[in-house]
Amino acid sequence: MAVHVFVGPSCPEPLVRKHYPKFVLHGPVRHGDLFSQDLAAGDVTVIVDGIYHHSLALRHKEILDALARGITVLGAASIGALRAAEVDEFGMIGVGRVYGWYRDGVFDGDDAVSVAHSETGPAVGINVPLVNLHSAVLAACDAGVLTQEGGRRLMVRLEDEYYPLRTLERILALARQCGETAFADWYASRLAADPTAFDQKRADALHAFAFAERLDSAAHATPAMATQTARDWRTEYHRRWRNRFATAAPSMHHRIAYQQIFAAGFPDVWWDFLHRSPDLACAGSPDGFRGHVLRHLGPTAGRWLDDPALRARITALLCPLPDLTDSRETSHLLRWESTQDRARVTEWLHRMQHHLDTHPARSLSQITDATCKRLLGRIWRANTDEQLAVECGRRGFASVSRAAIALRPFAIGYLSSIRAARTQGGEVRA
């Protein structure tokens, strides 16, 4: 069991290491981080800071996924407090005053905890977080430096300021513009004496770390249990994120995509997979896939099940997304994969990466859907849009667009192989 901490500018790393040397420290949390296999059942994860704005932020269902895997998740101080206020009913634990302010509606925007900082080097904040200013205003009201009305007026003015511009100098200037010169002088002098005097984010982070240490000690005696909820929050997006971030072999989705696109016999593999898919049969249902088809597509579909020529009507309508973290599913989808197939996947991905590295201005997105459609039509010998759509269903693609996404990483290698085969007077065989 371990305590994982995602922290950045809210609390200096040396301070965390000094007081909690056994903690596993990560930088600010990013989209996908909680799917990491480094996080295991019984672990405690503390989310303080997170990356967003220029990068994808931590999704709520990543937290729910961690909770479902038996990981205790705490949130405090920054994006952790915000996410805890949003999903605490599902089992995430919020810690500290900032969490309480979000939970009670004092703040509802992420800019209240946002800190601009460099993407390289130490994560040192440029601006003062609004929640820290709120803490200072409350203290000033208690000290008689500000009236309640003056404090509210000042907070409204500070909230109107774009968060990266809330530097100390700007805050003092705004306070004086609002006629609160006494507060400006008092605030500046307090910070001069103690730079962390009103650092609520830091205080909450330290509170969360202490709480996590106690939980970790208790967990050694009583292992954590997965949180149960009556709501089904698992969606196709969640499955796609798990497939991307939680798959043990990073190339797994490429290997399966290669089979879907290039293996002539894959439609038979996919048809058999549909019969085994837990997504297409109620747990414990004796009629399995057939019952699912009849319930959802009607009794006429029974004839489609029994006639190989009509199977495409079913595959055009039913297209579950495989769970690439389930070794049983991946083993089935790759059951006809050959050593040559794996070598070709590696070779074509290498060619793609080499091409992009040597042409920095280019990207896979420049390979248009129209180009992909032409290539897929050639590979599958599908001459019309209708034939192309039918073949997509038979191969486990929900649409031509999804098939195009799967093809793009292979397109450069495939075209290079065609060119080489023509030069040598041969042909490319999948």
Mean pLDDT: 90
Spatial shape: elongated
Distance between the termini: 46 Å
Secondary-structure element series: EHEEHEHEHHHHHHHHHHHHHHHHH
Structural class: mainly alpha
Low-pLDDT stretches are 221-226
Strand content: under 5%
Strands side by side in the biggest sheet: 2-1-3-4-5
- Major beta-sheet overview: 5 strands, parallel
Briefly characterize the structure:
The chain has helices at 13-19, 60-68, 79-87, 97-103, 130-142, 148-159, 168-177, 181-193, 200-221, 236-245, 252-262, 266-276, 288-297, 301-306, 311-315, 327-333, 339-358, 369-380, 385-394, 400-424, and strands at 3-6, 24-26, 44-47, 72-76, 93-95. The protein is mainly α and 430 residues long.
Q: Would you mind describing this structure in some detail?
A:
It contains 20 helices and five strands. The protein is mainly α. A five-stranded parallel sheet has the order 2-1-3-4-5, sandwiched between helices. Helix 11 (252-262) crosses helix 20 (400-424) and helix 17 (339-358) crosses helix 20 (400-424).
